[in-house]
């Protein structure tokens, strides 16, 4: 018990040291507010005592975390715009992912599936905006359509759900043609749309892949 208390005291002492240091830096006038990620990277590189060797920087945890964030945000920006040039940029970002051989593309934490700060996956974003070419591209690279995204609070929604809800017919077609959905997924998606074309697509999917039949 005494060991646990001593350990806790040491941890709280460390926290206190960090807080005090933060106040000292703030009062010294040496603290800068950095709003641009590129500026933050440059500040890290110029940090006193830090070598500027590219081989060392590339393995620096802070530098890597910021670089990952920039790549992920860039991917989502291109998906939201959805132009032909953006599609080319998306393909380049995926192809140049430094961890593509370390993590399975279907893994929840891979570049293709990792959620952004809003809790959305790249495939969800493409489905929301109704870009069938981008959906197909992401799935060709291995993006997992079954990984759900956060919408309101703790509610989770699939890319098929959001495509149906927003009436993105072409997006629904691609998602149905290139992935396997359970009956409960199809049933939920049908409840989210009143579009007759989408409801017919969902009904036909059920007829093709199961004996479960729903009428339009």
UniProtKB/TrEMBL annotation:
The protein's matches in InterPro entries, at most eight in alphabetical order, are given as: Ankyrin_rpt (IPR002110), Ankyrin_rpt-contain_sf (IPR036770)
Keywords of this entry: ANK repeat
Placement of ANK repeats on the sequence: 118-150
Instruction: Check the record and name the PROSITE patterns matching this protein.
Output: ANK_REP_REGION, ANK_REPEAT
Bilayer-crossing residues are none
Gene3D superfamilies assigned = Ankyrin repeat-containing domain (1.25.40.20)
Does the keyword field hold Cell cycle? no
User: What is the protein named?
Assistant: Uncharacterized protein
């Amino acid at each position: 018990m005494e060991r646990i208390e001593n350990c806790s005291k040491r941890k709280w002492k460390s926290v206190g040291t960090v807080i005090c240091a933060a106040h000292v830096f703030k009062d010294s006038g040496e603290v800068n507010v950095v709003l641009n990620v590129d500026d933050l990277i440059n500040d890290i590189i110029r940090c006193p005592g830090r070598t500027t060797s590219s081989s060392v920087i590339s393995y620096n945890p802070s530098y890597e975390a910021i670089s990952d964030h920039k790549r992920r945000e860039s991917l989502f920006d291109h998906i939201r715009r959805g132009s032909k040039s953006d599609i080319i940029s998306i393909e380049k970002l995926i192809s140049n992912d430094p961890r593509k051989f370390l993590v399975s593309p279907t893994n929840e934490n891979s570049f293709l599936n990792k959620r952004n700060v809003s809790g959305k996956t790249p495939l969800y974003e493409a489905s929301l905006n109704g870009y069938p070419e981008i959906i197909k591209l992401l799935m060709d690279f291995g993006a997992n359509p079954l990984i759900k995204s956060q919408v309101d609070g703790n509610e989770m929604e699939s890319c098929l759900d959001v495509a149906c809800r927003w009436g993105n017919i072409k997006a629904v077609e691609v998602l149905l043609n290139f992935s396997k959905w359970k009956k409960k997924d199809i049933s939920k998606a049908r409840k989210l749309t009143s579009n007759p074309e989408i409801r017919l697509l969902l009904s036909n999917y059920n007829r093709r892949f199961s004996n479960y039949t729903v009428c339009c």
